[in-house]
Amino acid sequence: MKNQKERQTYSGALDYQTKEFIVQEYQSGNTENTIEFIKYLQQQRPGKRLAIFWDGATPAEFSRIASWGGATLSTIFDDN
Question: Are 51 and 63 in contact (CB under 8 A)?
């Protein structure tokens, strides 16, 4: 018998104005799922600006996500 753990990955967001916590479950924590979560947030809050904070993401992940988002997300990753 194999001792196999089921892993769960969650992405979450807090709407600080309404105090609503938004959470989604994913199979793994990777760039593709992060982009899917951002798309989900954009659908939940159409036309709103999102302030996104990551904990533990690598510079390469930031770069791939910024490339996907183009000008929309580029200001998030601006060091200036």
Answer: no
- CA 28, 45, 15, 22 torsion-angle sign: negative
Please, is 59 exposed, middle or buried when counting C-beta atoms within 10 Å of its C-beta (0-12, 13-18, 19+)? exposed
Contact 78, 52 (CB under 8 A): no
C-alpha–C-alpha distance, residues 74 and 53, integer Å: 14
Contacts of 74 (CB under 8 A, 6+ apart): 66
Q: Which pTM value belongs to this model?
A: 0.73
Assess if residue 14 is contained within a domain: yes
Q: Which domain, by its residues, includes 31?
A: 9-77
CA pair distance 25, 37, nearest whole angstrom: 9
Structural domain contains residue 39: yes
- pLDDT higher than threshold 70 for residue 79: no
